Amino acid sequence: MDRFQAMQVFTRVVDANSFSRAADSLGLPRATVTNIIQNLERLLQVRLLNRSTRRLSLTDDGAAYYERCVAILAEVEDAEASFRENARSPRGRLRIDVPASLARLVLIPRLCEFHERYPEVELAIGMTDRPVDLVREAVDCAIRVGALPDSSLVARRIGTFFMVTCGAPSYLERHGVPQRIEDLAAHRAVSYFSSLTGRAFDWDFVVDGEVREVKMDGVVSVNDGDAYLACALQGFGLVQMPRFMALPHLESGALREVLPQWSPAPMPMSAVYPANRHLSPKVRAFVDWVTELFAACPLLGGCSAVDVCCSYEGKPGGHTLRAVAEQHNLAESAF
User: Fold this and answer.
1) DSSP structure string for 294-330
2) How far apart are CA 206 and CA 143, in angstroms?
3) How many domains does the chain have?
4) CA angle 322, 326, 332 (to 5 degrees)
5) Can you say how many angstroms the Cα of residue 256 is from the centroid of all Cα atoms in its chain?
6) Domain annotation covers residue 334
7) Which pLDDT tens digit goes with each residue over 231-271?
8) Beta-strand pair 141-145/121-127
9) What are the tens digits of pLDDT across the range 72-85?
């Protein structure tokens, strides 16, 4: 007996709730469909279907076997589709999700290059600073910051993300420049809180190779990147923000770095996609392109070569990437 065909016939009978309709859809005689189901039940030594003159119903064993058959047949179809698609150039709709500040400053300004390389791919770009369920929300690929403990996602490292501690000159003139981490106890910060939990994110510094967390007090809390940076520029307090976001303001003098000898812990950036989906040509094309893009941008490498990467304008965006990392419960360590 062809077991694969038997699975196909059995699932079709269940879906159609009829031997006759299943036989018609498969192009088989009804007697053949009946014999296949009977042989399958003898092979498994269980009854799969309760039959009457008016209706069919699944037994408990039949329901369990049906679920397994559906999953197996879907995996086979997915595997075959991946090879069919690999023979074609990337095409179709590709839904991605990217942290808003990273999309605005790095991705969007170079998007024409992707379109010129892959003209048949239609991009749908979600720019969110909240956790996204890739499977439930039908997202093909997302860019995330931090280590990824979720085994249901496949991750590819595409860069490193650096933070900087800084404040406006007006704030530092009033409160002084901290010289040690302990001095932060006398300072206030602009707090960034989670939109999920309402909890303010703590700061961290790498001291003698160890990550040291610091809880900061402040008079204003926000959960939007633009607002976070705007508050810092107005002198509401010190901030820890993405280095690539802060550099234009550091260069102009609107912000000044503090405690440069103790930098916040760097985090990996990754492109992630569900493990139960094959890496389609369009997803592979985007991941390869964004890896090249991030590697060519010095601002994402932690260096200060602003004029080398001057095409990325310093539009405010703020603390959003750290928020995404922490909202996803991602550890701040490299793969």
Assistant:
1) HHT-GGGTT---GGGGTTS-----TTHHHHHHHHTT-
2) 25
3) 3
4) 75
5) 32
6) no
7) 999 999 999 988 888 888 999 999 999 999 998 988 888 88
8) unpaired
9) 887 787 677 666 65
